[in-house]
Design the sequence.
């Protein structure tokens, strides 16, 4: 591990000023410390965000929830009223990692976490694109892993977050502050799938302050489904967040977001439009599933491994999510 | 230190030096550094500039045995071969009504004990003391003496309580490097593997293939098994144990002609070595998957087919674990039929197995299917010589003295229980001094042999000590030793209450020195003792996602006699390891780069409590006359039947047979995508090529 300095500013402004190129913000550290130990990143300075009051806590607004970036996932999950009013958020937090990680990891950290690609994370170092190299290894090696079926290439690593998928389906907005001021950005626009070096649009000298989640309207229904390689904790093989409002059993304002399948939470607006105005039925669910993976392109390595199974899995999760709209809240 | 500083001697014949001028895989030790702190050592490592001359490499066994492949060792790329034949195999196939052939494939898996490899070494002149997490202190002592050209008496190995071995401790350079660094530094040195190092430079279970051909008659008579094993062993070979143990499932369980050829193949990959149950895991998966196929082909119940062909008490065993038994020995006891009967009853075989798959699927979600499967196991109790001593101090303190290491399996407990039983003492009154080569010789913790071999030695030692104690008490009671006994720690005339404490016996006799009873177990007659078992699983397959859940599990084992039932039960719960191998675990060696991709517990997915089904343990006691108090070895038998039991249950649920481990959710999902899953059509084969 490279030696680094550690500073604990008490305001967002001070923190932003410290966040230069070779600095990294740290809160729970569940992702960053592992990356440092494995030599994936070697920052000179860690900027501790846990002493900044403005980044902490959950506030109920008139029309939604404001979640501070350093709010622990476990605190969010235990916030009274989460299951009642923000069930999609609750569902995604509940299947996120396990309680010890949730007790350390933060909402902001979860959104900014790095991919789990086993070439990118390898402690012995690789010439992976994301590490500034010139290779995307799964294309010639093991492709049956956390790799994209949507929008892949030149890098195929998928975004590993559960929370981001749910927040995207809830139309969340992020607040970002930097040395040049404060800005709000929709979660959809936060990610940067075409930039292989990083996963989001945070600039040097900027940090995530919080997330605003609109309160779901009356009649809202939502479901988060996650498939893993084993029963206990793991990142998603694939996941689906579906939120909609139901009037007379018809779906409106549907938002469908897929997780573990692309470099960012992958929204499927075409499927959303198809669902709007429809009554939930087995046929509708099957159509939605087919449409959701119509443009999927599995990664097939030159050595014959592939993530083809993810296509059928994603379709199955979409189908189930649509069916669950008939009874979920 | 580099290879310039290391002795020429091989620590592991025929292929491994302490340090070498060749790097054979990514993870091979190149240089060693000792420092005042871990951080300093890491910084020092980064300062080493290595000049490499790139040589061609092979990352797959198939490539390693091709003509013109780069030689990984001077001796070639085949580390060893084994050929055994029993009966006329060609004739037996000719007389078979049905002959099936399948290829079974296995990913490398790692036992990853809680405690990774670690050692401390200290030199005092030419005296070397090593504290190591080891399953084999006496072997380690011998090897250290050889490597450093020391007389054996100059080396002492001490093993404290060790956090798991599963057969995989030792078999790496770590201890030798530690001793080398300590000698150079002139100070004690501690060296340990990180988790990533443990999972790369430690040892994993050999991967590879078993090609199996089997012939059966319509009346259910198993005629022939012909197996060809090709195991990958990576850059170094820790011996042919795995291939040898693989023979057990082929030769010992069933009466039929058998041909068996096995080879271990090098590649530029992390080395394979010993892991609990060795190659028996591979061959049991192959044979017991095949037996279910044969049963299906002739329309017989899978349990009945096994019972019809299995070895019976008194049958002569000619080969055990690939070794010829001279002269052939009759099988001592078998609780196999009882394991099958009780296991089948517990899982509800008769009610559930024949039922339609769809009726067992969840009513609310027809995409789920349930199935029941089973697989048997036979596993020879290992054998070794063993010494043991029982010491009775003049103050009455009683101890077992044995050099044996306890790797978490309860060896200290069971030896104290045996001594207490013989000596007529409460268990709590017997101490155990163990884990030190300064104490009497004991076998290594491997091959399901310690309770057996050491158990006999302790029993004998306790009997000898008891005899001396009663002799010492003769003047006190004015009775001969034959009329005396020890009960609840009191020495007394047989059939009478009261008596004297042991300390009083010493006092009355005026004896200030201790009593030492010695015991010795020989290495004879043990191959005739076999551990049997039968595992039953009920699984539920989500045919849309490939997720498989083991709903219920029954593990019935003939344990001879459960000396410490709680310990036996825990050994059986260890089946979790092959549950992981069956469904998830895959240590991924990248064929493009040779990197181990998931040498961490985040990406190498072991089962946790959530994945572990409720397990009903059934212990069948056959009281084998060859075992101490009737006990058989139970260290390894719980592992081999897990994967075939689960694969057979999955086949029962969805009509698809999987020949490749692990049976991943992706593999199941892809199989379910094909229409062959529906209904009761003949089985489809998935996998088999790796």
Sequence:
């Amino acid at each position: 591990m490279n030696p680094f300095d550690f500073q604990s500013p008490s305001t967002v402004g001070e923190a932003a000023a410290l966040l230069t190129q070779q600095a990294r913000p740290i809160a729970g550290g569940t992702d960053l410390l592992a990356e440092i130990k494995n030599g994936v990143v070697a920052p000179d300075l860690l900027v501790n965000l846990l002493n900044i009051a403005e980044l902490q806590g959950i506030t109920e607004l008139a029309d939604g929830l404001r979640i501070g970036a350093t709010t622990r996932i476990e605190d969010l999950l235990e916030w009274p009223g989460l299951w009642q009013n923000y069930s999609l958020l609750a569902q995604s937090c509940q299947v996120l990692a396990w309680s010890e990680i949730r007790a350390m990891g933060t909402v902001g950290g979860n959104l900014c976490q790095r991919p789990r690609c086993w070439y990118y994370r390898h402690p012995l170092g690789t010439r992976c694109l994301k590490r500034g190299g010139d290779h995307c290894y799964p294309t010639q090696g093991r492709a049956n892993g956390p790799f994209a079926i949507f929008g892949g290439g030149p890098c195929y690593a998928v975004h590993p977050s559960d929370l981001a998928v749910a927040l995207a389906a809830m139309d969340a907005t992020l607040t970002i502050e930097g040395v040049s001021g404060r800005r709000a950005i929709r979660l959809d626009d936060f990610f940067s799938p075409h930039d292989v070096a990083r996963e989001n649009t945070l600039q040097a000298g900027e940090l995530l302050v919080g997330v605003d989640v609109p309160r779901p309207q009356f009649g809202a229904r939502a479901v988060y489904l996650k498939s893993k390689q084993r029963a206990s904790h793991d990142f998603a093989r694939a996941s689906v967040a579906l939120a909609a409002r139901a009037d007379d059993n018809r779906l409106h304002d549907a938002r469908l977001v897929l997780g573990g399948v692309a470099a960012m939470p992958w929204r499927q607006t075409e499927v959303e439009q198809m669902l709007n105005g429809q009554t939930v039925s087995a046929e509708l669910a099957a159509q939605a599933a087919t449409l959701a993976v119509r443009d999927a392109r599995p990664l097939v390595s030159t050595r014959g491994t592939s993530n083809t199974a993810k296509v059928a899995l994603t379709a199955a999760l979409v189908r189930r999510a649509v069916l669950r709209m008939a009874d979920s809240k | 230190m580099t290879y310039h500083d290391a002795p020429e001697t091989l620590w592991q014949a025929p292929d491994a030096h302490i340090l070498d001028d060749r790097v054979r895989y990514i993870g091979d030790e190149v240089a060693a550094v000792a420092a005042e702190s871990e951080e300093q050592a890491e910084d020092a490592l980064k300062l080493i500039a290595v000049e490499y001359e790139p040589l061609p490499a092979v990352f797959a066994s198939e490539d390693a045995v091709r003509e013109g492949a780069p030689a990984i060792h001077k001796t070639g790329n085949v580390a060893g071969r084994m050929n055994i034949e029993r009966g006329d195999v060609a004739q037996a196939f000719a007389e078979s009504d049905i002959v099936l052939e399948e290829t079974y494939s296995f990913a490398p898996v790692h036992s990853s004990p809680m405690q990774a490899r670690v050692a401390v070494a200290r030199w005092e002149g030419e005296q070397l003391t090593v504290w190591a997490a080891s399953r084999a202190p006496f072997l380690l002592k011998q090897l250290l003496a050889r490597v450093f050209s020391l007389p054996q008496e100059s080396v002492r190995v001490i093993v404290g309580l060790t956090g798991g071995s599963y057969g995989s401790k030792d078999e790496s350079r770590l201890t030798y490097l530690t001793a080398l660094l300590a000698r150079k530094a002139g100070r004690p040195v501690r060296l340990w593997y990180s988790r990533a190092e443990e999972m790369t430079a430690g040892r994993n279970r050999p991967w590879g293939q078993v090609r199996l051909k089997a012939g059966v008659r319509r009346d259910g008579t198993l005629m022939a098994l012909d197996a060809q094993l090709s195991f990958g062993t990576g850059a170094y070979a820790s011996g042919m144990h795995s291939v040898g143990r693989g023979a057990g499932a082929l030769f010992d369980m069933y009466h039929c002609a058998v041909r068996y050829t096995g080879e271990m193949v090098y590649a530029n990959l992390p080395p394979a070595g010993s892991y609990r149950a060795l190659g028996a895991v591979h061959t049991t998966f192959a044979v017991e998957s095949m037996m279910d196929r044969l049963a299906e082909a002739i329309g017989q119940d899978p349990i009945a087919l096994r019972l019809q062909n299995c070895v019976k008490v008194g049958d002569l065993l000619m080969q055990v674990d690939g070794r010829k038994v001279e002269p052939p020995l009759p099988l001592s006891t078998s609780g196999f039929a009882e394991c099958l009967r009780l296991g089948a009853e517990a899982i509800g075989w008769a009610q559930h197995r024949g039922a339609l798959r769809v009726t067992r699927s969840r009513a609310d979600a027809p995409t789920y299917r349930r199935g029941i499967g089973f697989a048997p196991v036979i596993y020879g109790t290992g054998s070794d010589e063993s010494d043991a001593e029982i010491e009775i101090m003049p103050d009455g303190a009683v101890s077992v003295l044995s050099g044996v290491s306890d790797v978490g399996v309860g060896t200290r407990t069971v030896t104290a229980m045996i001594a207490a039983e013989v000596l007529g003492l409460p268990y709590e009154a017997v101490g155990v001094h163990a884990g030190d080569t300064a104490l009497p010789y004991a076998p290594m913790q491997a091959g399901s042999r310690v309770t057996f071999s050491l158990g006999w030695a302790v029993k004998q030692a306790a009997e000898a000590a008891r005899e001396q104690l009663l002799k010492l008490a003769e003047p006190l009671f004015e009775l001969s030793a034959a009329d005396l006994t020890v009960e609840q720690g009191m020495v007394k005339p047989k059939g009478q209450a009261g008596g004297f404490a042991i300390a009083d016996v010493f006092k009355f006799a005026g004896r200030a020195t201790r009593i030492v009873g010695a015991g010795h177990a020989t290495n004879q007659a043990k191959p005739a003792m076999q551990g049997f078992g039968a595992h039953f699983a009920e699984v539920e397959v989500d045919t849309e996602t490939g997720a498989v859940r083991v709903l219920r599990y029954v593990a019935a084992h003939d344990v001879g006699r459960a000396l410490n039932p709680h310990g036996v039960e825990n050994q059986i719960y260890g089946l979790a390891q092959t549950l992981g191998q069956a469904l998830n675990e895959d240590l991924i060696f990248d064929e493009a780069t040779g990197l181990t991709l998931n040498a961490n517990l985040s990406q190498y997915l072991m089962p946790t409590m959530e994945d572990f089904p409720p397990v009903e343990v059934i212990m069948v006691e056959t009281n084998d006359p060859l075992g101490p108090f009737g006990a058989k070895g139970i260290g390894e038998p719980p592992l081999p039947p897990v994967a075939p039991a689960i694969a057979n249950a999955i086949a029962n649920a969805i009509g698809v047979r999987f020949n490749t481990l692990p049976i991943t959710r992706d593999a199941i999902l892809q199989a379910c995508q094909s229409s062959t899953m529906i209904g009761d059509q003949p089985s489809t084969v998935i996998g088999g090529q790796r």
Observations:
- Chain B touches chain A through 34 residues (CB under 8 Å).
- The CA atoms of residues 464 and 517 of chain B lie 5 Å apart.
- The radius of gyration of chain B is 27 Å.
